[in-house]
Amino acid sequence: METTKKSRNTTTVLILLLCVALLAVAPLFLKKGAEFGGSDDAGSVMVEEVTGEAYTPWFTPILESILGGEIPGEVESLIFCLQTGIGVGIIAFFMGRFVERKKQEEMRR
Amino acid sequence: MSKNQKKTVALCTILALSFGITPIANAMHIMEGYLPVGSCITWGALCIPFLAAGFFSIRNKLRENRRALTILAMSGAFIFVISSLKIPSVTGSCSHMTGTGLGAILFSPSAVSILGIIVLLFQAILLAHGGLTTLGANTFSMAIAGPFLSYAVYHLCLRLKVNRKVSIFLAAMLGDVFTYCVTSLQLAMAYPSESGGVAASAVKFLGVFAPTQLPLAVIEGLLTVIIIIGLETYAMPELRSIGFIKEKEVY
User: Which among A14, B28, B223, B236 has most CB atoms closer than 10 A?
Assistant: First the structure.
């Protein structure tokens, strides 16, 4: 009973992961040559479109005003990676502990 | 029509829709300096009661039992990971998800407001993504409105005896979508269109956000289900101790 439930869960997780991967990658093939931007500039374009005039933000991000310009793209992706890394690290650390604990419990039984 | 024909028609419809939408790139949070001072303050003030409730809710939960800390840390980490991944969408632009559904389901929506604001601060200060002046508005949409909807959807589904995994999926997905609806509304209130006022402007912003975000919301729903399956398999004592799974239920 226990083992069948486990393998069913494994199958579900694998199928779900496959769906996630497909959903994330499919747009690259569906829309070849699209820019896939996601920058803040695009948001301002939208605001301009609605209001009909250019808008000057009244406050610039503090890091940008310290640096005196935009954060370099590579550095930005570094910080994004850092963010992902912190998150994955925490999840993996606790998940690892849980998995090991369960194994120990089963061995004791 | 046979099954295959139906599939073909459905596929064509999806393709037609995706071509009909003009690709406009997209930023998740409201940019720094893009809201008038008044609404920055209003949104910020609106967040304060939720943040206070969240702070106390977390403190009480941890005082009750320290074990909850692991799951809380994982929910926060989940938001960190999920909101750092920019994923391409069918409209030809990238956006990222919120990841707040998990914490809202496991703990309380107000607890998530604290977790969410940490992530928003990280991105506002280090990444110039979102902003300090718009922090209030962004916190309200991502860390308050979204999680509260997730929580409501999840508990409504449970009451209607919907399958547990389906409920989790729906809660996380709709919470993500709702975050964008609120963001659109916030932008619309700051930039009402000349002809139609706030409503017309909201529809316009939403028209840009929604098609990009929908597939990502589905991804977020699936990922939330995956992590809960993982927790149910390996961290049953913790889930019981935070009251996510009642003592009597056997899985």
Answer: B28
